[in-house]
Amino acid sequence: MSEAIERGSGSDKSPESEPLIVLKGVSRSYDGGAIAALRGIDLQIAAGDCLAIVGASGSGKSSLVNLLCGIDHASAGTVLWEGRVQRTRRDWARRRRLDIGIVFQEFNLIPTLTALENVEIALFGRGLSAPQRLTRAAVMLDRVGLEHRMHNRASTLSGGERQRVAIARAIVNQPKLLLADEPTGNLDSASAANVADLLFRLRQDTGQTLILVTHDDALAARCPRRVRIKDGVIIEDIRQGMAFRAGELPATP
Amino acid sequence: MNLLGLALRNLRRRPARTGLSILGIGLAVGSALALIALSHSIQDSTRESINELGDDLVVTQKGAADIFGGFIPEATIERVAAIPGVARVAGELFMFAPSTDQRSVLTLGWPETSYLWSRVPLREGRLPQPGEHLVAVLGDAAAAALGKKLDDELTLIGENFRIVGISNYTTVINRGLVLVPLIDLQEASYRMRQVTMIHVNVEHGAGAVEPGRVRAAIEALGNVTAATANEMLKNDRNVAVLDAVSLAISIIAVAMGALSVLSALMMATQERTREIGIFAAIGWSNARIMASIVLEGMSMCAVGCVLGVLLSFLAAFAFPHIPAIGNLISFRPSIALIAPVLGAACALCLIGSLIPAWRAIRMVPAEALRRM
Predict the structure, then answer these.
(1) Could you tell me if B268 and B298 lie in one domain?
(2) Residue A91's domain is classified under what CATH number?
(3) In this structure, is residue A87 part of a structural domain?
(4) Residues A124, B286: C-beta atoms closer than 8 Å
């Protein structure tokens, strides 16, 4: 690791920012409790954090991400967004519409829509007119370097291009949190490098919170903070300049 | 792009299924319209045929289940004629009289003195002369259907009638009538001194008795009912049964159409589970997701309804050219008929769309995204 790792002093808050998301004792189990994907997770993510969640396949990374953006619900525990408990699906839908952008490993674009339309649909419900939506979507596609492909259907784009469209869709609402779940997992190495560069460049430009889920240690190393998860438990929380091991994680408020 | 555009694009993604669903709705709406319009057309045709004869009131046997089912003594005609306010009366015996080739024709028997004879619009030939027996005047449609012309013989209830005239009425039922002297029909049908109905004209203008009092006076004669053509048809049991059957079949037809929408949308939402998960993941509200699915259903419904209405108008155009139908009833879809059928179709399609939409929003987005 290139950065120095030190023991934490008892607080995981960034000195300059308030917690964006707080997980308190969050668990997620399936099949009536037979399968425990996450167990008693306590995690605090500050606004502006750049965080990698790492772990082996099946360790619970994706389950954790699903809870962080509310596309799944916790079996136990509490998830707070800016200090407020998100109780209902409606609450979470609003959060995702306004404050959270998600990039998936499988891109999750609508294949029959063009790149422009795929980005535009993320602006529905924002009180924008159709021309305003299209303009903003076009600006975002320009920003990810796809202005020349905006009228192509998603199904005709390459993997790297699709992921760029997905990133444009995720950032078009200027979210506070950008969640990327294995964003380079389905890409060749050149495309993966481009997409990774794009994500970090966007994060640098906007200062938004970035949570990157990956099993690629090299990619994770580009994040100042790394949370390692194993068997549904956070076993390590390392940030530039400080680190916590399991059992030493700072208490959440 | 908007939600409707998205819905239409989704429908175009599955042209065969969308087309079949629309066809299902179209046939359902068309069938319902045709059935209800046919049922109404029987009432309309009957009412128009009575109105064409110029009646103010018709007198039938009290409690008769339908217009063919009651009989009135011929003597009642004179008693009705004597009521103040009654301008003129005409008794009539009518029935579907068996002719040759096991065909039945609607046959009316009028007394030779009836004023109704003077109102017959003759296309050719003449009216029966006083005292003349076993002669008939055929409506032009009846003559065409039976293949008869002037001076031909027509067998009715085993008696041979000579055709002396061809009438030229405008309403469908009257065009299919056979008019004969009352006494001949009474004898042939063993209904001597009986009539089925009494046509009544009341006095109009200054000094006329109020129609309600005329009706009351007629009904005071006992065992008879005086009513307008409309009222009579409303109380007719045959018409009521026909209406009920048409309505029931129409509801079933429209429900089948809605089921095709439900089935198409259920399959579509099942196939598009992941897509619905994407919409949820990018923050679409439940209402918006539901709206996108309902819009698909209602778009199919709208096109299906237009198709159904077109089919019903096609039927309205075609049926008069089919003698077995066109000679008996007229078929006219109208706004008053179309509106409730379309309303019912839309309501059922809405339910058919809401069910899959409701299922869609109950899915956990993360699970939906895991589906292929």
Answers:
(1) yes
(2) 3.40.50.300
(3) yes
(4) no
In a domain, A164, yes or no: no
Q: Is A64 within the bounds of a domain? A: yes
Based on the fold, state whether residues B254 and B331 are members of the same structural domain.
Answer: yes
pTM of the model: 0.68
Q: How far is Cα A14 from Cα A135, in angstroms, rounded to an integer?
A: 36
Classify residue B51: in a domain, yes or no: no
Cα–Cα separations (whole angstroms), residue A139 to A143, A145, A169, B116, B281 = 6, 10, 11, 84, 22
A98 at interface of B, judged by CB pairs closer than 8 A: yes
Q: Is A47 part of a structural domain of the chain?
A: yes
**CB-nearest partner of B282 from A73, A90, A169:** A169
Domain boundary pick from B205, B227, B249? B227
Reply yes or no on whether the pLDDT at B108 is more than 90. Answer: yes
Q: Give CA B309 to chain center in angstroms.
A: 16
Residue at B233 is within a domain? no
Chain B interface includes A231 (CB < 8 A): no
- In this predicted model, what pLDDT tens digit does every residue of B271-289 receive, in sequence order? 777 888 889 888 898 888 8
CA distance A106 to chain B (A): 10
pLDDT digit string (tens) for A10-28? 333 444 456 899 999 999 9
Q: What tens digit of pLDDT does each residue of A132-172 get? A: 999 999 998 998 888 899 999 998 998 889 988 999 999 89
Strands (DSSP E) contained in chain B are: 57-61, 72-73, 86-98, 104-110, 122-125, 135-139, 153-156, 159-167, 178-181, 194-195, 197-202, 224-227
The residue from B227, B258, B279 where one domain ends is B227
Verify that B166 and B117 share a domain, yes or no.
Answer: yes
**B37 lies in the same domain as B87:** no
- Does residue B232 sit within a domain? no
* B161 phi/psi in degrees, rounded to 5: -110, 140
Domain of A213, in residue numbers: 19-99+175-245
Instruction: Answer whether A69 touches B (CB < 8 Å).
Output: yes
Residue-level pLDDT at B330: 65
- Burial classification of residue B339, based on how many CB atoms lie within 10 Å of its CB (0-12 exposed, 13-18 middle, 19 or more buried): exposed
pLDDT at A2 over 60: no
| Inter-chain residue contact B369 with A110, CB threshold 8 Å | no
Residues B344 and B205 in one domain: no
CA neighbours closer than 13 Å in the CB half-sphere of residue B195: 25
Q: Give the domain range for residue B199.
A: 57-227
Pick the residue of B4, B14, B279, B282 with the most A CBs within 10 A to test the interface with A by mutation: B282
Length of chain B: 372
Spatial distance between the Cα atoms of B194 and B76, rounded to a whole number of angstroms: 9
ipTM of the complex: 0.82
Which of A71, A120, A169 is closest, CB to CB, to B1?
A: A120
Instruction: Answer yes or no: do B282 and A96 touch at CB < 8 A.
Output: yes
Q: Could you tell me whether strands A209-214 and A50-54 are parallel, antiparallel, or unpaired per DSSP bridges?
A: parallel
Q: Is the dihedral of CA A214, A218, A219, A222 positive or negative?
A: positive
- Structurally, chain B folds into a number of domains equal to 2
The answer to the question of residue B243 being in a domain is yes
CB A113 within 8 A of CB B9: yes
Q: Judge contact between B111 and B87, C-beta under 8 A.
A: no
- Which chain A residues touch B10 with a CB distance below 8 Å? 112
